[in-house]
Amino acid sequence: MLYDRLAQDLYTEICHVPIIDPHTHIDPRRPTARNLDEILGYHYYTELAHSVGMDKGRLAPGVDPRDRVRAVLYHMDQFDNTAQYEWFLEIARAFLNFQNSRLTIGDCTWLCDTAEQLMGLPDWEARVLQQSNIEKVFLTNDFDDPLTGFDTNRYIPCLRTDDLVFHLDKPEVRQRLAKATGVEAGDVAGVRKALGKLFEHFTRHGAKACAISLPPDFSPSPVSEQELGRALAGDDAADRVVCSWGLFWMLAEYCRSFGLPFDLMIGVNRQVYEHGVDQGRDLFDQRTSLIQYAKLFNAFPGVPFCISVLASGQNQELVSYSWIFPNVVTFGHWWYSNIPAYVEQDLRARLQAVPKAKQIGYYSDMYKLEFGLPKYNMYRRILAQILADDFVRTRVYTEAQAVELARLLLRDNVRRIFNV
Amino acid sequence: MLYDRLAQDLYTEICHVPIIDPHTHIDPRRPTARNLDEILGYHYYTELAHSVGMDKGRLAPGVDPRDRVRAVLYHMDQFDNTAQYEWFLEIARAFLNFQNSRLTIGDCTWLCDTAEQLMGLPDWEARVLQQSNIEKVFLTNDFDDPLTGFDTNRYIPCLRTDDLVFHLDKPEVRQRLAKATGVEAGDVAGVRKALGKLFEHFTRHGAKACAISLPPDFSPSPVSEQELGRALAGDDAADRVVCSWGLFWMLAEYCRSFGLPFDLMIGVNRQVYEHGVDQGRDLFDQRTSLIQYAKLFNAFPGVPFCISVLASGQNQELVSYSWIFPNVVTFGHWWYSNIPAYVEQDLRARLQAVPKAKQIGYYSDMYKLEFGLPKYNMYRRILAQILADDFVRTRVYTEAQAVELARLLLRDNVRRIFNV
Amino acid sequence: MLYDRLAQDLYTEICHVPIIDPHTHIDPRRPTARNLDEILGYHYYTELAHSVGMDKGRLAPGVDPRDRVRAVLYHMDQFDNTAQYEWFLEIARAFLNFQNSRLTIGDCTWLCDTAEQLMGLPDWEARVLQQSNIEKVFLTNDFDDPLTGFDTNRYIPCLRTDDLVFHLDKPEVRQRLAKATGVEAGDVAGVRKALGKLFEHFTRHGAKACAISLPPDFSPSPVSEQELGRALAGDDAADRVVCSWGLFWMLAEYCRSFGLPFDLMIGVNRQVYEHGVDQGRDLFDQRTSLIQYAKLFNAFPGVPFCISVLASGQNQELVSYSWIFPNVVTFGHWWYSNIPAYVEQDLRARLQAVPKAKQIGYYSDMYKLEFGLPKYNMYRRILAQILADDFVRTRVYTEAQAVELARLLLRDNVRRIFNV
Questions:
Q1: Which of A266, B371, C199, C321 shows its CA 20 to 30 Å from the CA of C14?
Q2: What residues of chain A lie within 8 A of the CB of B299, using their CB?
Q3: Using a CB-CB distance cutoff of 8 angstroms, which residues of chain A are in contact with residue C45?
Q4: Would you call B359 an interface residue with chain C, using a CB distance cutoff of 8 Å?
Q5: Model ipTM value
Q6: Contacts of C382 in chain B (CB under 8 A)
């Protein structure tokens, strides 16, 4: 909750801006949760519960969903200090009419009952969207997603390419690619043709972005046709690196020819904690630099690169590269940097040094629509406080101008940059 | 001094929590200073005085202790802006009844006289502990410390292992080890046996932790018995690296079998400033990552690793690794990060993203008990202000709940994690 | 604008301290702008305008200066959130009597007319200096600058050495050196003799510093006479590295013998954005450490090294190295770190942990005198707020003592350290 009056006023105004959420993991065919298990099954909660000692077995597929909820709730009082806990509390209050100020294991049955009842209502999705003031939602689609069966005007497809760049050596990925495109991607020409088919398929279905997450040591360079051909045929670690560079570069070329921005989510090491819960195994190495992407930014001046960094320490690089490179755009506050302490300092620097036209303020990264509200509220509160302190009180902007800046960050820049 | 009323109220309450200080360099046989020279001989003061131009010769062993004090005090007006100066001022006020707001060279005689008089009182130790509200104090014991002659209930032994991991190639260290354990550690079996004896000796005398400080480039892996054997017999740089890995891993194994947490203080380069004062030669390289310890954290799920990082820039990694790994615990604010600007931002992030059960708030790192009060007060003030702004004013916690969180950080988590 | 009363009072007092600006790019023979084009031609504006889509062609030399101004102003409303925009607005208000709170393209003609009229006045330079309260200004002189034709008491020469260290392999640089010194620098002895001539020439003309900017991966070591000789004769990448080390070390030796401080501006990668505007192509890699300079700091205890870091993340290293090494001094807030969000956190840490005698607060880095006022005002506001919150309100300093600290940072330390 904000306790500064001016910030609160700004927050109230900012909440009127309809959100276009430019990065989520929503399943458009089942966008909302059906019960509390689908809320507390979010990896943020299972990770934290596991981190304070919960046995992973209590989350196993065979377990009764209410028992899974109980297991997480039981451990929650050991992490009720966290921003993640606050998201859940805000969901319970905003959507489930929960009235108390703390959640305990004693609330489990009531919460589960209420959730099942409300989330089963036929207009639940519409209600959540309306209450959250969310208008459109970007998806994260596997490359072989048929992209049918949902409203692509509300749920905007986005081609996720991690598998193509880092796992094309795996037979199952090649098979999925062959099946999706009708092309056997056995050599460079085949791969190029197959990727082209994917871009055609995605843009025909309204896709507005290509996206990928990248490890901290990724440092792509163009590779020649011959090098890539040899690497595709090979199978050692060096071949895999050359493949990832060549395929990544090919994706950038397709972004250029199809007019799609390329979202780069930089800095994640996968599977670091081997025994972690599902999706709770990835961490990072702060020793990474955007200099690794200088060749890319130079080679594709016409492709907007929407950059997320995992380590807040890299934010100053992002600020500086966005200030200099016309095609580099700041893109939200990702994952381990998506807590108030880091959002606040990263956002302040961006607002002071990156042209306002080149900032995409936030995305929710959510798996279920219910998380849009608490996550965007967290961001809106931080934004409102910074606008109050750094812009309005210092007489840089009027209140109205400050709200206009917020509108750019939350809506207008998304529309313009992604051509929505 | 705090000037925010709510923060001040919280601070007052937090000061009532009896401290268990989980890392110090106290000599339990002489825990307090006997004169001002033992206060200003702390390397924080000699470093800063030397940094502004004091000749090292003025600290030489043969010099009259009052002249050493005079030398440091004389230079103090060039660093009276620092947090370290504030610690000293708070000691002078709290323990020596100093009444002014600034300290100058003109106060030297009065301070020395008063210190000698008061510190010589038979109940000085008890007074200091009582006034500081410190109940127990962890030590840093050399591996060959007999651990006798003091109250191990108040002064809790802790096995410091830097010498074993990094200097076992030195004959004097091997001799000390042989003398302490009765084992000639000539090969892997011998080393293992000797280390086992140390763990037996330490735990028998109430040791509650094993601790080590590590350079920024340390990246330990398990090594096979054969590799370690070859490395122990060799003497080049590569051998020393393999030895350090193997011995470090062996310590982690013993922590597991003896049920001791392992304190890792990560990131110090020793002897960087060759001509520095005693203990004032060490610095760091910010280019380090907790990914270097991923294998370790995976291999020893049952060992609590209490992690201190030297560079504040690494705090986000620490926050994230503690959030994910059940056996990674945040551990205080170390050395160059132990100034308000860094404690504040590091602590805010921890409070927002690490389960409260997994945070050990602070340790003093002190050599003399008199430093517990000003150092803990600095931390308690920062903590109180963050609790006021981020928790109480935002209605996340009531004041009482905020004080309970402080109790966890300052006392209860230490008790539980170290089994005190 | 400050809105905190105490901070504002401190700011007012701090503004009375006459500035000695220890690093600029002023041309002493034409220190002020003659028109608005020379204000908006500053790379901060051309970069930002280019970053939001302005065609570089609109800045070409043949273009009418008013059209260049119009091009930048036209794009300015897309970066009117930035600190750089604030600098320009403050120039327009302070020096051009601009009365509105926002600048738009509609103000172009009036601004251009007014600027031409006022900047053409014979006492313009004196007016700007007086209104900015700037007393002396350090320059950045090419090594072959004759250093004549200006008042070296007001405009203090400084030997810039990037060309010598990194480009001596280029024939034109060797020719310039030969012409400037009368020495053919064909071998080590020749180079040493030539550099000696430069130091004689510069110190004879009142130079007070030697300066250089360095890439993030620079890690100098002493090289033997023979090694340097071989490297000077060679022409591969390794030779160039050895040359840069040897020449850099030689400069440090001359700093020692001529009693000049050595300004090190650490961390810039040149020409990263190939298609950027003039001076808008340089960025950085956060992965750098002051440990790379440990040998240097140890080898030259008598040379003050005034250190600027490009990445705010390196500030803690700078704080710690300055706290420990007597010859390491913190030096301003450089370039990408010169925005309030980073100045604020970097300055707080310095004020808490670096002796006040060892901090040079700020430099403007300006090319035209008009920028001294808004840049120093930005710094003075941040400083005033920190002094209010961390020093005066906490009762560490009285207001008068806080202003004395500001005087050290802005004037007295510059005078003492650079012997002005």
A1: C321
A2: none
A3: none
A4: no
A5: 0.97
A6: none
Measured between alpha carbons, how far is B10 from B12 in angstroms, rounded to an integer? 5
Contact assignment for B326 to A53 by CB distance below 8 Å = yes
Neighbours of chain B (3+ CB pairs under 8 A): A, C
Reduced to 3 states (helix: H, G, I; strand: E, B; else coil), residue A330 is strand
Amino acid at C73: L
Handedness of CA C28, C32, C34, C35 (dihedral sign): positive
Residue C235: is its pLDDT beyond 90? no
In whole angstroms, what is the distance from residue A61 CA to residue C7 CA? 59
Cα A13 to Cα A362, A381, B354, B372, C288, distances in angstroms: 17, 11, 32, 48, 43
pLDDT at residue A235 in the model: 87
How far does C296 lie from chain B, in Å, by closest CA?
10
CB C331 within 8 A of CB C158: no
Q: How far is A53 from chain B (nearest CA, A)?
A: 6
Beta strand extents in B17-93 (DSSP E only)? 19-21
CB pairs under 8 A between A and C: 110
How far is Cα B220 from Cα C285, in angstroms, rounded to an integer?
26
Q: Which of A85, A93, A285, A286 to mutate to test the interface with B (most CBs of B within 10 A)?
A: A286
Percent of chain A at pLDDT exceeding 70: 100
Within a 13 Å sphere around the CA of A10, how many CA atoms are in the beta-carbon half? 32
> CA separation (Å) from C178 to A133, C173, C200, C245?
70, 9, 15, 21
Tell me what pLDDT residue B186 has. 87
Angle ∠(B239,B245,B250) on CA atoms, nearest 5: 125
CA distances from B63 to B39, B113, B158 (A): 16, 18, 33
Q: What is the mean pLDDT of residues C171-199?
A: 96
SS3 A306: strand
- Stretch (H or E) spanning A225: helix A225-233
Angle between helix axes C372-386 and C399-407 (nearest 10 degrees) is: 140
Low-confidence ranges of chain A (pLDDT < 70): none
pLDDT at C287 over 90: yes
Set of chain B residues whose Cβ sits within 8 Å of the Cβ of C316: 286, 311-313, 336-337, 342
Parallel, antiparallel or unpaired: strands C305-309 and C283-284: unpaired
Q: Helix, strand, or coil here: A33?
A: coil
Residues of A in contact with C283 (CB under 8 A): 290-291, 294, 317, 320-321, 324
Q: How far apart are CA B34 and CA B120, in angstroms?
A: 6
Residue B298 in contact with partner chain A when CB distance is under 8 A: yes
Collect all residues of chain C within an 8 Å Cβ-Cβ radius of residue B83.
Answer: 352-353
Taking an 8 Å cut-off on Cβ atoms, the answer to whether C317 and B81 are in contact is: no
Q: Please indicate whether, in this complex, the C-beta atoms of A51 and B358 are within 8 angstroms of each other.
A: yes
Q: What is the pLDDT confidence band of residue C159, given thresholds at 50, 70 and 90?
A: very high
| Beta-carbon count within 10 A of A62 CB | 5
Between the CA of residue C408 and those of B177, C69, C284, C415, what are the distances in Å?
53, 38, 30, 9
Q: Taking a C-beta distance cutoff of 8 angstroms, is the pair B17, B387 a contact?
A: no
Rounded CA separation C242/C244 (Å): 5
- Give the three-class secondary structure for A24: coil
Q: Where are the beta strands (DSSP E) in C64-107?
A: none
CA–CA dist A118, A39 (Å, integer): 13
Tokens 């500081």 found at: B132
Residue with tokens 């190939």: C274
**Largest CA-CA distance found in chain B, in angstroms, rounded:** 65
In this complex, which chains have at least 3 CB pairs below 8 Å with chain C? Answer: A, B
- Chain C residue at shortest CA distance from B1: C394
3-state secondary structure of C329: strand
Q: Three-class SS of residue B307? A: strand
Residue C45 CA to residue C26 CA, distance in Å, equals: 18
Do C1 and A395 count as a contact with CB atoms less than 8 A apart? yes
